[in-house]
Write a structure and sequence with these properties.
This protein is mostly beta strands. The chain contains no helices and 9 strands.
């Protein structure tokens, strides 16, 4: 589920089990590009909720750059 103002820069890798969920709240920036970024990033953002009943919830006004989030139960960021 994506809310208003969610922005993806470059392609992220997202894996969701059919009984899991990923929720991204308002005004969140998911960056998989290192172009004009002050730190070198060498990988894209990865969001994995690949087990049944897992949840990844990313709150309002977050910035995520070149990170892997892999939930086996529940992650709230």
């Amino acid at each position: 589920m994506l809310n208003k103002g969610v922005l993806f820069k470059k392609m992220s890798h997202i894996l969701i089990n059919n009984k899991a969920k990923i929720k991204i709240e308002k005004n969140t920036f998911i960056n998989s590009s290192n172009y004009q970024y002050h730190i070198n990033m060498y990988s894209r953002v990865k969001l994995y909720a690949n087990m049944p009943n897992t949840e990844i919830i990313i709150g309002n006004n977050c910035r995520i750059h070149g990170t892997c989030i892999n939930a086996s139960n529940k992650i709230i960021a």
